Predict the structure.
Amino acid sequence: MTRIGSDTSSPAVSAAAPALLSVRDLDVRYGAICALQGVSLNINPGEIVTLIGSNGAGKTTLLRTISGLLKPANGEITLLPTSPSPHPPTALSKLRPHEIVRLGISHVPEGRQIFPNLTVSENLLLGAYQRRDDLSADIARCHTLFPILKERQSQKAGTLSGGEQQMLAIARALMSRPRLLLLDEPSLGLAPLIVRKIFDIIREINAEGTTIFLVEQNAHLALKIAHRAYVLQTGRILMTDSAQALLANPEVQKAYLGG
Amino acid sequence: MLQFTQELIIGLSIGATYALLALGYTMVYGVLRLINFAHGEVYMVGAVSGFHFINLALRWHAPLALALTIAFVGSAIVCAILGFCIEFFAYRPLRGSPRLVILITAIGVSLLLQNVVNLNFIYGPTPRTFPAEVQKGLNTSIGIGGVYISRLIIIRFALSLSLMAVLTWIILRTRTGLALRAVSHRFDTAMLMGVNTNRVISVTFILGSVLASVAGVMDGLRYTITPLMGVTYGLKAFVAAVLGGIGSIPGALIGGLLIGITEEFARFYLPTQYTQYADAVAFVILIFILLLKPTGIMGSTAVEKV
């Protein structure tokens, strides 16, 4: 097993087209505890990249750092600007979360975190909080992706079932028209049938052009829809490969796929 | 019965001003989980600046109605700036600190404001009232079906209710109001939606301070103005917010009105030698809420997020 954590100068990476999001040597600490150490990864435009790892590996911490909710102790996160070449990638770690949303990153947090006392429509409006233009096309798109949300639009979001709440959380994140969608454990606590439905929709969203960074404990499912994957263990990137290769990798099978 | 109706109306109008102040406590608690103990002092500054503005206006021979408008608007502007500054300079640098630290800061801000207003070139320790001509104009009573109510009571009631209506509209129907509700439900998730939480917090302090300034000017019209007037009054409004369920906006309205009515009834129906205890009624109520239903009338029993 090769440790590639700080191997950022690998020619394979730098020769490719510029990454949409690039994380370099990231350290994140909670007080004296290191939650992430020297994490580096790239997400290319149009990909589904998944990050797998067990409980407490630091997956959620990484997403929260990308979104600006946590500040890294060291390292940098950069995002490719919307207008190409002359502009250098934008450094994210000094920005506040709402500025990062404006740049095109949308985060579906772990446990869905919908606003239970607001209606389904209000939840969607909040997702588009940074936008001042017409939202009707986006709302229509969410209703097409998740017809149940149309039926429930004036209901309080707290009355939805777990699966419906997850759909709302994803729809809400799409309302800001993100270039990169961060998904934290979308399968958490849901019935297998619903999980499959949600994963189909994730693939559909990706096919429509949104890049996806998916964090999952359900490694099998995640590897099946992803193009590439990283394995995170106790705050370090243990390995990376194409999703197919990792699915076949005996180490991964043993540790994360129950085989 | 007429007497009862009259006392009820007076109680409602007093309660409406408590409610205005309670809204400030409850909104700040909603977004920051902080009891802003300096809020009573914002109310006091409202009364003091209302006093200065009305005297200034009368010195320029402004008609009474205009002078009153200048007092209300001027003091609202002063308090809006004050509320913004309190949050920006005292609380914002401490965001994320232990709550005790912020609570002590709030008490410090409150003492600072009392003592600044105590300075002679600002206001001074002498209790003063609004000019006699203003008081005279407002104390004329209007009789409706045998119930006599002063104009001041009517103005207090009407102004408080319309401000609450405006606030409700802001919270339920505007983009900023939606953000305010989002921040008070889930702070971090609101950030992920692209809400600039610092801006929402500033708006909350400004709205609360404007309401407090109106309550301050209205009470300045009725009572004497001193640098310490916000202490008891602020605490009673805080009790109103707790009674209604802290964090709940309809709760603050209900709590304020209930405290106002009970206090006025206590003042009127208690034997004369006990009338001075009317001020204590609110605090007796507080003890009972804390014993019986600490979440208040409209409060949710939801587990507090960390």
Notes: Residues 106 and 181 of chain A are 5 Å apart (CA to CA). The two ends of chain A are 18 Å apart (CA to CA). Residues 1-15 of chain A have pLDDT under 50 and may be disordered.
